[in-house]
Amino acid sequence: MRQREENESQTLVEMEAEWNRLLPQCLEQCAAGRVGLFLNSPVVSAFVDWPESQRLWSLTRKIRDAHAALGSVHPRCQRFLHYCSLRGTDFRAEPKLAAELLKELANDNEKPN
Fold it and tell me: How does DSSP classify residue 106?
């Protein structure tokens, strides 16, 4: 049983590392005008050809679910999901939201631990 828990923990660490690499890349592209990052519907996202965004979404769901099973949250995933909820159906809002979230994340990185 302990081995399984260690494997799950390692998998979560790896997913979070990939997610942390993908998020700023996707946000930068979205802030530059590419749409499709903040899609919160699997039906709509099927029409967007942006593999990195789709991978980010897949990881977001897996990380959220893994943390929920542990009784915790991943703060940046929660923040990303919050921003996605703000977009609604307005695709024009995506670049602005991406720029705002990038700025927020940069401010977080500047704060001392």
Answer: H
Averaged over successive runs of 10 residues, the pLDDT of the chain (113 residues) comes to: 73 95 96 83 63 92 94 94 78 85 87 59
Q: Mind spelling out the 3-state secondary structure of 28-86?
A: HHHHCCCCCCCCCCHHHHCCCCCHHHHHHHHHHHHHHHHHHHHCCCCHHHHHHHHHHHH
Q: What is the chain's alpha carbon radius of gyration, rounded to the nearest angstrom?
A: 15
Whole-model pTM? 0.83
Q: In angstroms, what CA-CA distances link 24 with 8, 20, 34, 60? A: 25, 7, 13, 14
CA quadruple 73, 74, 80, 81: dihedral, nearest 10: -30
